[in-house]
Design a protein that fits this description.
The chain has about 140 residues and is mostly helical. Helices cover about 75% and strands about 0% of the residues. It has 5 helices and no strands. The longest helix is centred in the middle third of the chain and has 43 residues, at about 40-85. The protein is elongated and about 75 Å long. The model has no long low-confidence stretch (mean pLDDT about 85).
Length: about 140
């Protein structure tokens, strides 16, 4: 698995370079120039279709692997920011693993906080404080 990850990382870096686009265009031009030689027959068409299919499937897995690595790295960085920030809610760490219902519950909390903050701004209050989420929900339930 480590070897696949290393190869995938290397390929994703190389595929993002301008030279990769150059080679893709060059291969299409070579294929087009060979058309008259093969009299534009089925073999000529099969060559490009097969090549394109193989490259597309390989790139799909390489890009997905790269995206997964980046997503995990971003989540870990955000978790560290939450952990290190005084007053931050630790329940936000690993939030991507929660159920849709749990995410909706947390989203509601922050929606209520945003609405409360907008009301306070209209009253001339600052929006730079860090209110407690639980208190926002308590006030909603009181109303």
């Amino acid at each position: 698995m480590e070897r696949f990850s290393a190869i995938s990382k290397w390929l994703s870096i190389k595929a993002a370079q301008p030279v990769a686009c150059f080679f893709a265009i060059l291969s299409i031009l070579i294929w087009a120039l060979w058309g008259p030689y093969f009299h534009f027959n089925d073999t000529w068409q099969l060559i490009i279709n097969t090549f394109e299919s193989i490259v597309s499937i390989m790139m799909l897995f390489i890009i997905q692997n790269s995206q997964n690595r980046h997503t995990i790295a971003i989540q870990l960085k955000l978790d560290e920011i939450i952990r290190a920030t005084k007053g931050a809610h630790n329940e936000m760490m690993d939030i991507e693993k929660l159920t849709d219902e749990d995410l909706a519950r947390i989203q509601e909390k922050y929606g209520l906080l945003a609405a409360k903050t907008k009301e306070e701004l209209k009253e001339g209050k600052a929006d730079t404080h860090t209110p407690e989420i639980g208190r926002v929900l308590e006030r909603k339930n009181d109303n």
